[in-house]
């Protein structure tokens, strides 16, 4: 029995509220159970120096956790003067994941920065950030299309992410913290709506996992991604 009482292949309750930021070109608040992430997308009419005069656009991301997003207060990274390795790794993952579904010539020579701020954490914050970050990106692109700034849609597919793991000897979908903290295997799957794999992160904790278990996690992930993409489509309908 999972701590939440969910079936092994069940997501936590997912809600996506759009238009939560007055100033951002695209924004949403995504809730996956008790993990809540504010995602905003900001458009800049410039690109990093290595892309100047290339005609290519760029999508990047920043990620952070508020001090009381967890059970005890954590120090703001800004006050420490540097980002942790975990933060850098996650925001690079978010950026890579979103760029995988962007036609950069169609975006033109401009940058969209997706900011993912974790308001409350209960496991799966990077996955919620990717899923919600795509919504914010979609809405920012819609803003550009409506204004006539770009002529064709640069987004080629929905992108979503979900965690899976081996908990209590069973493959389970969408781990919350109670499961993630003791899981024998933890994995994150980033996929497009048609099942294309963008990134898979998986590791064993103290014991190896089998090919059959990996296949079971993949099956759970495909089901979860399909449900998350359906939630994305409902949110932007």
Protein model, in words:
The protein is an alpha+beta fold. It has one domain (14-236): 2-Layer Sandwich (Ribosomal Protein S5, domain 2), CATH 3.30.230.70. Helix content is 32%, strand content 29%. The protein has six helices and nine strands; from the N terminus they run ββββαααβαββαββα. The protein has helices at residues 77-80, 85-99, 104-107, 125-147, 177-180, 211-236; strands spanning 14-18, 26-32, 35-44, 58-65, 111-120, 159-167, 170-173, 185-192, 197-204. A five-stranded mixed sheet has the order 1-2-3-5-4. A hairpin with a 2-residue loop joins strand 2 (26-32) and strand 3 (35-44).
Question: What would the keywords be for this entry?
Answer:
237 residues, alpha+beta, five-stranded mixed beta sheet, four-stranded antiparallel beta sheet, RNase_PH
- Tell me, briefly, the overall form: globular
Given the structure, what is the number of helices? 6
End-to-end CA span: 36 Å
Tell me the name of the CATH class: Alpha Beta
Second-tier CATH architecture: 2-Layer Sandwich
Helix content: 25-40%
Overall pLDDT metric = 96
Structural class by sheet pairing and helices: alpha+beta
Q: How many domain regions? A: 1
Order of helices and strands: EEEEHHHEHEEHEEH
By CATH, the superfamily comes out as: GHMP Kinase, N-terminal domain
CA-based gyration radius = 18 Å
Task: Give the topology.
Layout lengths: L13 E5 L7 E7 L2 E10 L13 E8 L11 H4 L4 H15 L4 H4 L3 E10 L4 H23 L11 E9 L2 E4 L3 H4 L4 E8 L4 E8 L6 H26 L1
Parallel strand pairs: 4-5
Antiparallel strand pairs: 1-2, 2-3, 3-5, 6-7, 6-8, 8-9
Helix pairs in contact: 2-4, 4-6
């Amino acid at each position: 029995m999972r701590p939440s009482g969910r079936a092994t292949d069940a997501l936590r309750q997912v809600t996506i509220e759009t238009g939560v930021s007055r100033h951002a070109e695209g924004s949403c608040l995504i809730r996956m159970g008790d993990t809540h992430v504010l995602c905003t997308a900001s458009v800049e009419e410039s690109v990093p120096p290595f892309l100047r005069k290339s005609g290519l656009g760029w999508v990047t991301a920043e990620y952070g956790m508020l001090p009381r997003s967890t059970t005890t207060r954590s120090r703001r990274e800004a006050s420490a003067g540097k980002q942790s390795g975990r933060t850098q790794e996650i925001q690079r993952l978010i950026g890579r994941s979103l760029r995988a579904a962007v036609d950069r010539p169609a975006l033109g020579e401009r940058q969209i920065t997706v900011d993912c701020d974790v308001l409350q954490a209960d496991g799966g914050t990077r996955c919620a950030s990717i899923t919600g970050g795509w919504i914010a990106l979609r809405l920012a692109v819609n803003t550009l299309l409506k204004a006539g700034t770009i002529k064709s849609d640069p987004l080629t597919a929905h992108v979503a992410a979900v965690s899976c793991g081996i908990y209590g000897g069973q493959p389970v979908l969408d781990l919350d913290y109670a499961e993630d903290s003791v899981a024998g295997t933890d994995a994150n799957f980033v996929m497009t709506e048609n099942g294309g794999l963008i990134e898979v992160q998986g590791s064993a904790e103290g014991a190896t996992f089998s090919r059959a278990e990996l296949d079971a996690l993949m099956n759970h992930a495909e089901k979860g991604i399909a449900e998350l993409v359906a939630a994305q489509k409902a949110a932007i309908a």
